[in-house]
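Input/output pair, single chain:
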Amino acid sequence: MGWLKTALGGGQGVDARAADGLVRAGATLLDVRSTAEWRAGHAPGARHVPLGELESRLDKLPRDQPVIAVCRAGGRSARATALLTRNGFDAKNLSGGMRAWASAGLAVKTDNGRNGTVA
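Output:
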């Protein structure tokens, strides 16, 4: 099973606090959840690219800084991390996803700045 974890990017995971530190240092937080999930609440400053659109939008992502992929619990973002890594990005998966982010006490906001939820 270790090969599957590596293939999905699970070997490149970071916890919520580490991800927050990387983002503060300039990394891009890439939210790959659905639009409905994004609207319910997301990390401030995150970029939204649903997983199904990621491959066609790779050219819109910065290659000069790390990318931290996040979804609800970590599965979709693991797939995103694998895709990004295969395409030359320095990518990491936020282990536990937005659930872990919120549980760590980190901000979850809506587009209008109100407190959001992890849907």
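The beta strands are 13-14, 28-31, 47-48, 67-70, 91-94. Helices lie at 2-7, 16-24, 35-40, 51-54, 75-86, 97-103.
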